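2024-03-11 09:14:02 DEBUG pipeline.ingest accepted 1 chain
2024-03-11 09:14:02 DEBUG pipeline.ingest length=216
2024-03-11 09:14:03 DEBUG pipeline.predict start
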Amino acid sequence: MELMSTPKKVVVFDYGFGNVRSAERALARTGAEVEITRDFDAAMNADGLLVPGVGAFAACMRGLKQARGDWIIDRRLSGGRPVMGICVGMQILFARGIEHGEEAEGLDEWPGTVAPLEADVVPHMGWNTVEAPADSELFAGLDADARFYFVHSYAVHDWNMETHNPAMHAPKVTWATHGKPFVAAVENGVLWATQFHPEKSGDAGAQLLNNWIGTL
């Protein structure tokens, strides 16, 4: 008799700045057990923590700190517990953001500045392809021409993080282009993030979320 595997428990962190319901539905389709909450213990103990984000960088950071999300993310990463950020939930993982002339500090997990897109048409709204590393786990099983849904006016255009320790693996960075190339996704140990919305990206987004759940 084949034993049924226990569903992975995922918390969608609810700090007031994310499309939590659409993320919940998309994750539930992977077979995960999903809870929307800002409860400290639930967020700390879940197999995976998903941090969405919609709105301005500074406002999201304030909301995250008020919910102790910054501390939760730091502690989870220190303990090797997976975290995934989406859209502004990815942007706040960088060192700083500049929006509407206001500069705010991010979580500084990665160096870099979130700045206005350099393109003729802003916001970048709609479907776009990405250029993922050949050994990407996040995009495993997806065709090179797979499209993902973006809605944003800001992004990180330069990646300056390097590792000189041969025992450490350099982060895997995926790029997209809207005017100028920008960071579309990052895989860095147990910390993954996407600028696009996998929960709005149809079958390609579903495959990507399945890939993440499969690592938990």
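2024-03-11 09:14:41 DEBUG pipeline.report The radius of gyration is 16 Å.
2024-03-11 09:14:41 DEBUG pipeline.predict end
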